[in-house]
Design brief:
Layout lengths: L7 H12 L6 E3 L7 E2 L5 E11 L11 H18 L3 E11 L5 H18 L3 E8 L6 E11 L14 E5 L4 H10 L16 H9 L5 E4 L4 H12 L2 E4 L14 H6 L6 E5 L8 E2 L2 E10 L4 E4 L2 E2 L11
Parallel strand pairs: 4-5, 9-13
Antiparallel strand pairs: 1-2, 3-6, 4-6, 7-10, 7-12, 8-10, 9-12, 11-12, 13-14
Helix pairs in contact: 2-3, 2-5
The chain binds adenosine-5'-diphosphate (ADP) and magnesium ion (MG).
Length: 312
């Protein structure tokens, strides 16, 4: 065993201790062949899985280990948030290169566990292996639940529905630019995205939304996905986009920048959408109309694609 590294068994034991005793919906957690989750009565199960690859979704010279762990879990939680689900358990598959640094792994797990604790979800299992190459490979699986038939889909928007986004846009892209210029992170939404679980659950509980998606690839790309699934056209008012301070006045960052993990949702014409939902600002940015799926900004069709994560 090389210095700073521990055996796979010892690593899993370390992860198990960090995860603590099973709580809430996790009846059996880390340590058996499967986890056992107990969904609330009347709910159905939602599952999402996301790669988190070094060089593609994070960089050790740009993100701290804690930020990487946070972002890994946030990716999965944000998908649950988009559908209005609550988390039941998280699963982490982790492949570490031969010469991995234990310090990094500890920081990564700490970042992940801190967010997990705050969001009320337990790490309930995973897998650990040696990576074939020099890069860290992670995959995060989130299992959640929502009241039967009530989860928010991308396909639920209708002509006449208004379009809303939560929080502010372009902050993660603005922060990433600083990182690329060697200025490091600045504790913004690129480093510490906040999955909007409470907002998503409120949208379901209060029957506010007809459709929703989370903004991982950028507004232009994700809104187009929702339009395609719903077979409607989106008309956006460019000046209405709520821009994050780290985006400055640059609307293109709000329009195309990825990894903000805010929610985009639509609401029927008769629905009163409050200015804040679960303490998060909701801003109306446009309207769904009949027509071929597409996104129009101030009357002009958007052609540029969204965000390619670190590859810009
Ligand atoms: P198996 O051979 O049955 O897959 P493992 O030795 O891979 O067993 O895992 C033992 C236990 O540790 C399982 O409960 C598994 O879910 C958990 N586990 C393994 N790796 C991780 C990880 N990276 N994060 C969380 N739990 C893990
Ligand atoms: Mg295994």
């Amino acid at each position: 065993m090389a210095e700073g590294r521990i055996s796979e068994l010892a690593l899993i034991e370390r992860i198990r201790r960090g995860a603590g005793a099973p709580v809430g919906p996790v009846r059996v957690g880390i340590g058996d062949d499967c986890a056992i989750l107990a969904p609330p009565r009347g709910h159905e199960i939602l599952v999402t899985t996301d790669f988190f690859l070094e060089g593609r979704h994070f960089r050790q010279d740009w993100h701290t280990a804690e930020s990487a762990g946070h972002r890994c879990l946030a990716r999965g939680l944000s998908d649950l948030a988009a559908m209005g689900a609550r988390p039941l358990g998280a699963f982490l598959s982790l492949a570490l290169p031969r010469d991995y640094k234990m310090n990094w792994v500890d920081g990564f797990l700490q970042g992940l566990q801190t967010l997990a604790g705050r969001m009320g979800v337990a790490l309930a299992g995973g897998d650990t292996a040696q990576a074939p190459g020099a890069e860290i490979v992670a995959d995060i699986v989130l299992v959640g639940s929502a009241p039967k038939g009530r989860a928010l889909l991308r396909s639920g928007a209708r002509a006449g529905d208004r379009i809303f986004v939560t929080g502010a846009l372009g902050g993660a892209a603005g922060e990433l630019e600083r990182m690329a210029e060697g200025q490091g992170g600045c504790n913004g939404p690129q480093s510490w995205p906040e999955p909007r679980l409470k907002v998503g659950q409120a949208l379901v509980r209060r029957r506010l939304a007809s459709a929703a998606i989370d903004l991982s690839d950028g507004l232009s790309t994700d809104l187009l996905h929702l339009c395609q699934a719903s077979e409607v056209r989106a008309e956006i008012t460019g000046g209405s986009l709520p821009l994050h301070a780290l985006a400055g006045e640059r609307r293109e960052l709000g329009m195309h920048g990825g990894e903000d993990y805010e929610l985009l949702f639509t609401a029927g014409p008769e629905v009163k959408v409050p200015a804040q939902i679960s303490g998060v600002q909701a801003t109306e940015i446009g309207l769904m109309v009949a027509g071929d799926a597409g996104v129009f900004v101030d009357g002009e069709k958007l052609r540029r694609g969204g965000w390619e994560h670190l590859r810009g």
